[in-house]
Amino acid sequence: MTSAQRFRKRSLIVTIVIFFLTTVGTGIYLIVRPAATCHDGKKNQNEAGVDCGGVCGACSEIFNPEAFIIRESAFVPGGNPGEYDVLVRVNNPNDELGASELTYEFRLLGSDGTVLATATGKGFILPQETKTFLSVNLRSAPASAPASVAIAFSGMTWQRFSGYQEKPAMSVVDKRYQELSNSPFFGEATGTLMNDSAFDFHAITLKVVLRDDSGKPVALNQTEMDTVLAKENREFILRWPKPFPGHVARVDVEPDVDFFRVGSFVERYHATEVFQNLR
């Protein structure tokens, strides 16, 4: 046997031994290694993060997003003496975080800061969205004239949106307001809602703000539309039963849809993380 043949034989034997040891070692490791769990501190299984996502459920953590920015707050006389309608326009400055659930409380305040009336509700807000929160017929404490309105938020559940740019397109056209004669109503606002998006909506709330020449609110109202289909146009009418002070120069209408209840929209944009803000 030549030296070259002996070298090839030794190389073959070494290769066989290494393969055998590797196979045996791998088998032993597979037998004795601990099973992957949702508490092993590793990103394994089909997890989206370490010990969360996939079979481990949604990723959760305490998160402190940027605070909302109040763009406008106002109150106007309501339908009866001592009652007031209130609005607060709020901007969510966060680029990717939206609150799928939140609780808000309106506070109608006197000149000394005394709380004259309150109203609560539940809502949501998308990333980068500016939206109107509105409540009607808050009854003030007797003989107390309000001076301002404030809003407080609590119970917010945050979701991170991935690649989000803007909410589905809806617009309102042909907006008009007119006072009525020979009618049990004082005035009415009309218009057409255009669902320009590719989504069907079970319910859309229309929030209407009548403004004077300076842009100051003079009257508020809201109504709900049921089952608005994609690409559908729908006319609406809102009426005010009693006179209100001020001249109406502009009609603002804000469509409000809970996009977090529209599966196709949410599934397209939101990531798996859900953030609870405990403020």
Instruction: Supply the number of structural domains.
Output: 3
Terminus-to-terminus distance: 83 Å
- Helix percentage: 10-25%
Structural class: mainly beta
What is the class of the largest domain in the CATH system? Mainly Beta
Q: Name the CATH architecture of the largest domain.
A: Sandwich
What's the helix-strand series?
A: HEEEEEEEEEEEEEHE
Q: How many helix segments?
A: 2
CATH topology of the largest domain: Immunoglobulin-like
User: Globular, elongated, flat, extended or rod-shaped: what is the shape?
Assistant: elongated
* Residue runs with pLDDT of under 50 for 5 or more positions: 272-279
* Main sheet specs: 5 strands, mixed
Side-by-side strand order of the widest sheet: 1-14-7-4-5
Mean pLDDT: 84
